[in-house]
Amino acid sequence: GSSLEPQERSMEVPMELPPEAGAQELLGYVGIDAVLEQMKVKTMKTGFEFNIMVVGQSGLGKSTMVNTLFKSKVSRKASQPGQEERIPKTVQLQSVTHVIEEKGVKMKLTVTDTPGFGDQINNDNCWEPIITYINEQYERYLREEILITRKRKIPDTRVHGCVYFIPPTGHWLRPLDLEFMRRLSKIVNVVPVIAKADTLTLEEREEFKQRIQQDLKAHAISVYPQEDFDEDSDDRLLNDRIREKIPFAVVGADQEHQVNGKRVLGRKTKWGIVEVENPAHCEFPMLRDLLIRSHLQDLKDITHNVHYESYRVRRLNESNRP
């Protein structure tokens, strides 16, 4: 026992040194920060996928809004040019995929439109085709994941975000809006927006937004970004500011106009031009930042770790039942 005492004392000496001095003397520069650059280069080579769904009645500017978001013609009309556009008798889902590249970063973008939603006299269960489509994408990913010999990269067709367009009535949310968001918020990230907000005055817009927030709270509807998934205090502060602005009052436009010597996207009216990217005119920049710039990866993470995980657990429990 006494022979081990000097050895124990020698082991205690390095732990008493200051951390900074020990790190400088023993380690120096290791190069761990190069991992971020490796991840960036690999992601730029392989690219990434982002799937977005737009839901709302006809004439609310869904296609125009998607084109404005990505500054490109990425949406597809329900009918060909020169043909009469007819409202489908049932909800029909149409998906179109594009590969967008910006500064060497490639993104495979899939936009899913839902023509026919809310356009009928009887809209009972009009959300069923949308729920079925979202679950089908989860099922497709699950089947690829449980294979014995899996692909190195499983194709991801899961819906990462659903933008729900609310008609600018200026009153309360309709029962259809409440029922849709109540059902869909449990399986996908729902982002509500007030469509064609330039038809409302600033006072009407603010009152309508407060009424929508009251409706969502009264019916316990959790839209994105959800409070339960805030990871730390910094995320909570950022998301609290976003939650105060939801639903975003947006305006879409695909035409440029001359304003003070600059070309801007906007809608021309008799009294002036509504600039889409001007925060004083509408909240489209906030929606764009949320979907593309600041929370795109978070949308994908919550889809994979929360919504898809709950679907996977439910399906595996069903398959294990006798």
TrEMBL record:
UniProt keyword list: Cell cycle, Cell division, Cytoplasm, Cytoskeleton, GTP-binding, Nucleotide-binding
Pfam families: Septin (PF00735)
Any one of the GO BP annotations: cell division
Gene Ontology CC entries for this record: cytoskeleton
PROSITE patterns, A to Z: G_SEPTIN
SUPFAM superfamilies, per database record: P-loop containing nucleoside triphosphate hydrolases
Stretches of the chain forming a coiled coil according to its record: none
Cell compartment(s), UniProt: Cytoplasm, Cytoskeleton
Domain Septin-type G: 46-318
UniProt-recorded Gene Ontology molecular function terms: GTP binding
Lineage: superkingdom: Eukaryota
Family: Belongs to the TRAFAC class TrmE-Era-EngA-EngB-Septin-like GTPase superfamily. Septin GTPase family.
This protein's name: SEP12 protein
Protein's organism: Penelope pileata
Taxonomic lineage of the native organism: Eukaryota, Metazoa, Chordata, Craniata, Vertebrata
Gene (name only): Sept12
